[in-house]
Amino acid sequence: MNNNELEQIVSRVVKEQLCPADITEMTLALAKRLALRVEAKAKEMGVKPVVAISNTSARPVLVECTDDSYIASYDVALQKAYTVVALKMSTKKLKTLAQPGESLYGIQFTNNGQIVIFGGGVPLIYRGKIIGGLGVSGGSEEQDTALADFGASVLEEEIKCL
Predict the structure, then answer these.
(1) Is residue 125 part of a domain?
(2) pTM for the full model?
(3) Which of 29, 50, 101, 140 could form a disulfide with 73 if both were Cys (CB 3.0 to 4.6 A apart)?
């Protein structure tokens, strides 16, 4: 065994011992890392969003307003993060189900008006379980959806020793 192989083994064992084996809930540290990634992507796209991340109880862990974001985007992002955990689906999927004649038509009028039925919110899923929700608001529906999907796609990269 050479030094490089030994270093890799030691690194793997240390990481296994120091890192949580299974994350089941959104943490503030993880939310901060995820928000930074989403905000960097938004900057590339020319979008000034509000990013909200909730825990498994649909309660906010983090809400960040980028400079010059819309005031109205604060509530929208927060409610998207709530909606995706409360209903265990993206707001884009919910949009389809909430159309006239569909099974969830009118749902946006429940839960004290907290339900959002347009894109930009996704559940954050790790190892098959929802650990939180991500809501993005500030661009078009397509931009918000792309940013939320991006955030979900980099979640596993951000789940590491902090």
Answers:
(1) yes
(2) 0.86
(3) 50
Residue 82 tokens read as 């709530």
Give the chain's domain count.
1
What are the structure tokens assigned to 47, written together?
């979008």
CB within 8 Å of 45: residues ≥ 6 apart? 139, 143, 146, 147
Range of the domain at 120: 21-158
Domain-located, residue 101: yes
How far apart CA 70 and CA 137 sit, in angstroms, is 9
Question: What is the residue-level pLDDT of the chain in tens, covering all 162 positions?
Answer: 777 877 777 766 656 555 555 788 999 999 999 999 999 999 999 999 999 999 999 999 999 999 999 999 999 999 999 999 999 999 999 999 999 999 999 999 999 999 999 999 999 999 999 999 999 999 999 999 999 999 999 999 999 755
Q: Beta strand 50-54 with 129-137: parallel, antiparallel or unpaired?
A: antiparallel
Q: Is 4 inside any structural domain?
A: no
Cβ atoms 87, 54 nearer than 8 A: no
**Is 2 inside any structural domain?**
no
